[in-house]
Amino acid sequence: MPHDEQVQLAAEGFRLLADPTRIKILWALLQGESSVACLAELVGAAPTAVSQHLAKLRLAGLVRGRREGTFVYYSAADVHVQRLLTEALFHADHHDGDTAGHGTAGHTFGPVGGEAATGR
User: Which of 22, 58, 60, 114 is spaced 20 to 30 A from 13 at the CA atom?
Assistant: First the structure.
């Protein structure tokens, strides 16, 4: 059994990922470093909203920022974030629920960086 602290931290990470905009932001960051303005355009949200999402993701240790002059460029924190998000999307894409037409034919994303979906 994992320690209570590990369980709490994992639950908090999942709670923060329970937002479609945050998932889109993380997916964009898995493609490479980006600024708030660029992320806002990619995910279709206001820069202030993206900035607030990034602050929460940063506090959870899922993203990190790099300051360059007056700009901050964000990236995914590590390969574990990539694995977590890739597996969640893979699971959603292959869920055998009651959704019609859902399955491997609807696969719309690929591994990041050419790694296998599990990152193994």
Answer: 114
d(C-alpha 31, C-alpha 95), whole Å: 25
- Other Cβ atoms closer than 10 A to 22: 21
Look at 33-42, 64-73, 91-100 and tell me which has the smallest mean pLDDT.
91-100
Distance between CA atoms of residues 48 and 20, nearest Å: 16
Selection from 109, 116, 113 nearest residue 89 by Cα? 109
Task: Give the integer Cα–Cα distance in Å for 105 and 28.
Answer: 23
Q: 104 and 95 in contact (C-beta within 8 Å)?
A: no
Note the pLDDT tens digit of each residue in 48-77.
Answer: 999 999 999 998 899 999 999 999 999 999
How many CA atoms lie less than 13 Å away from 64 in the CB half-sphere? 5
Average pLDDT along the chain = 84
